[in-house]
Amino acid sequence: MIQILIIGILTLLSILAPALLHTNQYEFILERFTLGFIDASLFDTALYAAYLSAGILLAIFSNKIGKRKLFVLLGSAGASIFYFLMTVTLDFPILILFRFIQGVFTVLCWQTLMTMVLDQSTKLNRGKNMGIFGMFLASAMGLGPIFGGLFAGIGVLVPYYMAAILSVIAFFLAALLLKEPENLISKPILKDNLAIITKRPRLIIPGIFNFIDRLHIGFILFILPLLLQTELGVEPELRGMVLGIFATPFILLQYPIGKLSDNIGRYRLLILGSLLNTFILAIIGIITPFGLVIVIIAFFFLGIGNGFTGPPAMALVGDTIREDENAVGMGFFNLLGNLGIMTGPIIAGFLITYTDLVITFLAAAGLELVSLGGIILLLIFVFKDDEAKS
After folding, report:
1. Average of per-residue pLDDT across 98-111
2. 270 Cβ partners below 8 Å, 6+ apart?
């Protein structure tokens, strides 16, 4: 349990760092470089493209050599350097390159930490441990925009300096406190690692849930600050508070929902959360003209929906694979999640530019509903022999 808590604290630091940057991207990019919304969306897209391209390769390499701590140290150290470098360039393509490299180091750190939770879990406590992990993860996602807004009020570059400092702290804490999981073995045959989805086809189910969850996170982290600034005139400090309110139920539900999924199964909670997400996303564009309070309430309930889907989806990965496949199993899970979070800002930037707010959020709701329908069809017609508990 102590190592799970240490992993959680390191996750908090490694995710809090990039989350600080979301609140004032409008000022940092659109005003600093005089660009449009679609161009600005490339900033987050570069980060998530790094997560996508590097995540699965790093998982395979981690599985190949049977090591974890090394990747956490390299990831936190490298990320700190590129957070700082982003503050010194005035060339937008170079900024995007630095953002991509920072993303490679960041995913190296947090994906390894997520895998380490599986390394130290069993079927009986997997949901609970993933709930603990998810609590720290969600806390970072919620606190990041809040503190990012406060730091942005001091200066537009301050969130980037603080992100670098947090990564340095994570490096030293990992060096001092993090232990290599016991009984890790290397899997030197590359084709064995690459073939995980053919050996464990049911991984596609938690993967799709993660894809759509992370797509909406990327969508919201890009569109919500812009919505608050352009539609309601909200300043950076309060924008961060609204993102924090969205994350609050997500944070609070991680542990109880993860533990509950150990007792009643994963799918009931996943389907309930997806349906709630669909409904809330469908109405946000419609209710925004009614003011800030109603928008805050809607995003609070959206946070509840996300709280129901996160831990069960992560635990479902462990339910599907063997212990010696943790790294590549979680790598595939995050591959689809990173594809989703990379796609979210692109969809949001395109829709908000060429349509309106109502259609933008209706499209997001439609994606949620279609993905849920696809999962249900797979469970009924393809994976009929799924375990009853799930």
Report:
1. 92
2. 209, 308, 309, 312, 313, 316
Q: Choose the weakest-confidence range: 63-67, 175-179, 246-250.
A: 63-67
Residue 367 makes CB contacts below 8 A (sequence gap 6+) with 212, 215, 216
Nearest to 209 by CA among 18, 390, 16: 390
Contact (Cβ atoms closer than 8 angstroms) between residue 84 and residue 160 = yes
pLDDT tens, 274-305?
999 999 999 998 998 898 999 999 999 999 99
Helical segments of the chain, H only: 2-19, 25, 37-65, 69-85, 92-119, 126-154, 158-177, 190-194, 196-199, 204-226, 236-264, 267-287, 292-320, 326-354, 357-381
Neighbours of 5 (CB within 10 A): 13
Dihedral of alpha carbons 31, 296, 147, 108, sign:
negative
Q: What is the pLDDT of residues 349-380, one digit of tens each?
A: 888 888 888 999 999 999 999 999 999 999 88
Residues 6 or more apart whose CB falls under 8 angstroms from that of 287 comprise 294, 295, 298
* Alpha-carbon separation of residue 72 from 112, 126, 157, 202 (angstroms): 7, 22, 26, 28
Listed residue (43, 25, 47) closest to 156, CA to CA: 25
CA atoms within 13 A on the CB side of 389: 13
With beta carbons less than 8 A apart as the criterion, state whether 329 and 203 touch. Answer: yes
If DSSP codes are grouped into helix, strand and coil, which group holds residue 34?
Answer: coil
How buried is residue 300: exposed, middle or buried, by Cβ count under 10 Å (0-12/13-18/19+)?
middle
- Residue 248 CA: distances (Å) to CA of 32, 140, 143, 303: 31, 11, 9, 7
What are the structural domains of the chain? 2-180+187-381 (1.20.1250.20)
